[in-house]
Amino acid sequence: MPEARFETRREAVQAIFAGTLVHILRKEASRNRDWAALYGGFRPDSLTLPLFQRGALAFANSEKRLLNLCAVFLDSLGAPQNPELSARFAAAAAIPDLKEEQRDLCSALSQVNLLDLPPVVPAEHKDASPSLAVAPEPSSKIDLAPSEADPPPSAVRPKRSRKVTPVVTDAEPAPSIPAKD
Question: Any idea where the domains of the chain sit in the sequence?
Fold first, then answer.
């Protein structure tokens, strides 16, 4: 059995997202209002794994979201229902036709109590892992800062207005077009 390797809830959430099929996550995003609010601005069928993982901090900060994500993951594996989360992960690890990565993930998650883990690395350990800073207050939507793949703002053309405004000058008036007889 692999040794529990999660120091924070955020790490566990990212691993659960990676271990769950994207179409199952999309289905939950379309059915669950909390997820829909979190990923607002995106159609559920256009969400990708990196977009789901950007919301990992919101799942790590909320016990309700974390437990819901675990239930979605375990239900997708066909794990038997059990009120104790670690026992359900252990039962899922024993499912014979699981992929090796999913089995290892379930075994590792069965050895930790996710709710006892800190959401992120505490501030004094910040230099050890700069990508996991102290968690800000959870917001209602994930922060989708521009990625390196996004074009710079100067390369994006502004929308043109369909409304045409006439230009008035002090020059001669424009010649009028005579009416046809």
Answer: 9-128
